[in-house]
Design goal:
The protein has 5 helices and 10 strands; from the N terminus they run E-E-H-H-E-H-E-E-H-E-H-E-E-E-E. The chain has about 190 residues and is α/β, with parallel strands linked by helices. The model has no long low-confidence stretch (mean pLDDT about 95).
Length: about 190
């Protein structure tokens, strides 16, 4: 069965974006020791234009072949004219207000996220990447098998949280941790077995 992985950048205090959705404040913290880690271990999850700029456009997918995201995560790329931000992946956008996507390579759906992700997990293929955002992550929390948190050495004070959901604790166990010279930490959690 395929895994759903929430692979996301966050501040020390647990915010994935500024209150208005901006996340550019993470960029200065992509240091010389951290970038090679991202390009080798998570090339699947890099935006297509970034892969081209880094010379890894043709790198085959090894971890993910599908990305799911909410409309709020899709819109910033769309505002920059990027209609298919992750062309190397099957792209699914959950939206109740966007009837169709501006790009045939992007599937837009108003289907229940839990139902659709459960179907996707039954298909053959590589993993499924939950790109964001907080509302979708909150809805999909029962189906998240792995949580990979790229924690940046920043305190934001406020913003969009890692999850937006009702209080309902789920337990994960720390499976791996990596510390980088610039202060970035990558924490990998696996869903704890009950």
């Amino acid at each position: 069965m395929r895994k759903l992985t929430y692979f996301i950048g966050t501040t020390i205090d647990g915010y994935i974006a500024a209150p208005g959705g901006d996340f550019d404040f993470f960029t200065p913290h992509i240091t010389e020791d951290y970038l090679p880690f991202l390009t080798t271990e998570f090339a699947d999850a890099l935006p297509t234009p970034g892969r081209a700029a880094l010379g890894i456009a043709d790198t085959p997918n090894t971890r993910f072949d599908t990305v799911v995201m909410g409309r709020g995560t899709y819109d910033p790329g769309l505002a920059m004219g990027l209609t298919s931000l992750y062309a190397q992946l099957r792209q699914i956008v959950f939206s109740g207000s966007l009837a169709t996507g501006p790009d045939p390579a992007v599937e837009v759906t108003d289907e229940d996220p839990l139902t659709l992700v459960r179907k996707l997990k039954q298909e053959d293929g590589l993993g499924i990447w939950l790109c964001g955002g907080a509302d979708l992550a909150g809805q999909l929390l029962p189906e998240i098998d792995e949580l990979i948190v790229k924690q940046y050495p920043i305190v934001a004070g406020t913003g969009i949280p890692l999850f937006r959901a009702d209080f309902s604790p789920y337990t994960f166990r720390l499976a791996d941790s990596r510390v980088f010279e610039g202060g970035n930490v990558v924490l990998t959690y696996a869903k704890a077995s009950d």
